[in-house]
Amino acid sequence: MSEHCQIPRAIEKIFSASHCSTAYLGGSLTVGVGASDTSTKSFRSLFTSYLYEKYHPIYHNQVSEIMGAVGACESYVAAFTLGRNIIPANPDLALVEFCVNDFNVPDETLVLKGMEGIVRQLLSAKCDVMILGAGSREGNINHAPHRRIAEHYDLPFVDMQTHIFARLKEKNLSWDDVALEFEVNDPWHVNDLGNMFYFEAIRNEFERQVDLFRAVKKRERNAPLPPPLVSDELQYVRLIDPTVRNKDLSLSGEWTPKPPQFVPWYFDHVLMGSPGATMTLKFRGTAVAVFGLMYHNGLKVEAELDGREIPGFYVRHFIEFGKGLVMAHGLSDSEHVLKLTVAQPSRRHNKLANPSAQVAYLGIASKHEKAGND
């Protein structure tokens, strides 16, 4: 545990009667799934309200929330989205929780790259960062990769998992008291009480940081970024909207734009591809991702990279939500070709008319393309 303030810019903004915008990145836990009212009872909303209710009467500061949390999103997927969802809003403080969604991901290197990409993008934007570690009914969520990133970049790590179990023990309660009554086999999402416990853990660490700031024990606010712990591969990323004209992107077959009213906020557009339709991208970079909308009549997207088959993106699920997949990383920093093909429907799964694969973005990581999103 660091003995100097690790988030001096954000606290400085509050103490100087300025505006402190707080960004939240994570999955459905950060969205607030499980809270009776995500706008007032989620740990996210509780912390934003706390910053205003405690400090505005003293310092006349203003606070606001930047929403960057998307359900079912891993860190290495979210790394591609900051340039759209977070950085343009000029955040001062970011709370980042991907421990739960990164849990059981077999490629730990990709997790570290994802967290490192997020942190380096935020710190480069002069945004302070707190990394959060939520938990589960079994208390078995592994925080180690995220702690490594926090320690390397001298960031606070909030062990929400330890805190919630300590509070349950203190009150002679069990996980059943914070679990969702209407769900079975859901060991992660928590109700209003669970969100309150998570908020307490964040608040306690923030107050510790405030005490260190007041004691004039703080790190250099403009300290340069250290060398990467693992890789800065996902620091330089961009999203490509397939509905926007691009000389390096070609479509064949039947692609139809999804009606705008059915496109979720975290996508600009969605293209619905019929069986046999293809999408081909020529790019220079080291990593490539695809983002789509999963739904109950979705089709698999088969993939080839430089003429070789790689695992595709299956966009069928019993509920609709956005999902991203990093299709390849650690590539040679050279020219590549990605070809996506909408597979034929399955008689077993696709029983409705007009099944499709719904694609929203392609993501590229490349230091040669720092210009932002297309």
Q: What share of the residues lie within helices?
A: 25-40%
- Please compute the radius of gyration using only Cα atoms: 21 Å
The H/E string reads HEHHEHHEHHEHEHHEEEEEEEEEEE
Measured distance between first and last alpha carbons: 41 Å
Number of individual domains: 2
Structural class by secondary-structure content: alpha+beta
Question: For the residues shown, what is the average pLDDT?
Answer: 95
The CATH topology name of the largest domain reads: Rossmann fold
Bin the strand percentage: 25-35%
What's the total count of β strands?
A: 16
Question: What is the CATH level 1 assignment of the largest domain?
Answer: Alpha Beta
What is the architecture of the largest domain at the second tier of CATH?
Answer: 3-Layer(aba) Sandwich
Q: Describe the biggest sheet?
A: 6 strands, antiparallel
Task: Write up what this structure looks like.
There is one protein chain. With 374 residues, this protein is of the alpha+beta class. It has helices spanning 8-15, 28-31, 43-59, 75-78, 82-85, 99-102, 108-124, 144-152, 160-170, 192-214; strands spanning 19-26, 62-67, 93-97, 128-133, 157-159, 237-240, 249-252, 255-257, 271-273, 278-285, 287-294, 300-305, 308-314, 321-328, 334-342, 357-365. It folds into two domains: 8-214, 3-Layer(aba) Sandwich (Rossmann fold), CATH 3.40.50; 237-365, Jelly Rolls. The strands form three sheets. Strands 6, 8, 9, 11, 14 and 16 form a six-stranded antiparallel sheet that branches. A five-stranded parallel sheet has the order 2-1-3-4-5, sandwiched between helices. Strands 7-10-15-12-13 form a five-stranded antiparallel sheet, with no helix packed on it. Strand 4, helix 8 (144-152) and strand 5 (157-159) form a beta-alpha-beta unit. The two termini are 41 Å apart. The model has no long low-confidence stretch (mean pLDDT 95).
